[in-house]
Write a structure and sequence with these properties.
The chain is α/β, with parallel strands linked by helices. The protein has twelve helices and 13 strands. Helix 3 packs across helix 4.
Length: 279
């Protein structure tokens, strides 16, 4: 049997992960002296309540090799193989931890998604699909590394403040967005985060997302994932309605996730994200 393993930064809802037989290894998040495992000790709603109320930005920590080894040992004891999909190695040391842990486990294949959140989730969903089609672990890993070049991860943020505070973008970029009261559109490119546009207000931001998607199209035969940060999905539902021409034939099958603390720490509340493959 081939197992699919990922980290909690893929923001795959736990019921969906269970249904697809996907193992999730949690990252950790720290509020002051309190440490929690993402989605295990701290659910997304409680995280956002604390994030909004806290004066100090929480910090996130990569998964350590020991945590991966514990999972890999279970794979070996069951005489199984596994594919591990991690968030981008440019954004976290989690990929390196998985590679280090897998050094003595030739049955484990580690893939750097070069993405995060809904983009990473698209690769995880693809891996599960390929497993169910009978592909072995080595073939799945190779296919994922080939297809990730056509993977797109874009998001509309309410503010650049959290990315600036977390050191993910320069203070100058954040200041520009703040002074002009702009909604930034970001993308994960080459494994890193880039600001690709700024819009005045949510409607203009939504239009930028639509333009970015329509520019190269979507391969609807491949996995798609949408996500939102904060305590409700109102903004995401509005975006889907505003861009109904894109989703109208697929709206009943859109996987929607609440983005958790590993990414919500840096994106802040009020963001929406879309992951998909180009044709």
């Amino acid at each position: 049997m081939t197992r699919i393993i990922t980290d909690s930064a893929a923001d795959l809802e736990l019921p969906a992960a269970a249904a697809m037989q996907i193992t999730i290894v949690p990252l950790t998040i720290r509020f002051g002296t309190e440490i929690y495992r993402d989605r295990v000790d701290l659910c997304a709603d409680d995280f956002y309540r604390r994030l909004i109320e806290s004066d100090e930005l929480p910090s996130t920590s990569q998964i350590n090799p020991y945590d991966f080894q514990s999972v890999f040992q279970e794979v070996r004891q069951a005489h199984d193989t596994a594919v591990v999909i991690t968030l981008s190695s440019r954004l976290s040391g989690t990929w390196q931890s998985a590679v280090t842990a897998a050094a003595d486990y030739p049955e484990i294949h580690v893939v750097d998604s070069r993405s995060v959140t809904v983009g990473e989730q698209c690769l995880v969903r693809l891996a599960a699909r390929l497993r169910d089609q009978g592909m072995d672990a080595g073939m799945i890993a190779s296919h994922l590394e080939e297809k990730r070049d056509s993977l797109v991860t874009i998001a509309l943020l309410d503010t650049l403040e959290y990315l600036k505070r977390g050191g993910r973008i320069s203070a100058a970029s954040a200041l520009l967005g703040g002074l002009l009261v702009l909604k930034p559109v970001i993308a994960v490119r080459d494994g890193g985060i880039e600001v690709i546009g700024k819009a005045r207000g949510s409607r203009s931001g939504s239009n930028l997302l639509i333009q970015e998607i329509q520019g190269g199209g979507i391969d609807f035969s491949m996995p798609i994932a949408l996500g939102y940060t904060g305590l409700d999905r109102t903004l995401l539902d509005k975006y889907i309605a505003d861009s109904s021409a894109i989703w109208q034939d697929h709206s009943e099958n859109l996987p929607i996730s609440q983005i958790g603390s590993a990414i919500g720490t840096h994106g802040g509340p009020g963001a929406i994200a879309i992951g998909f493959f180009r044709p």
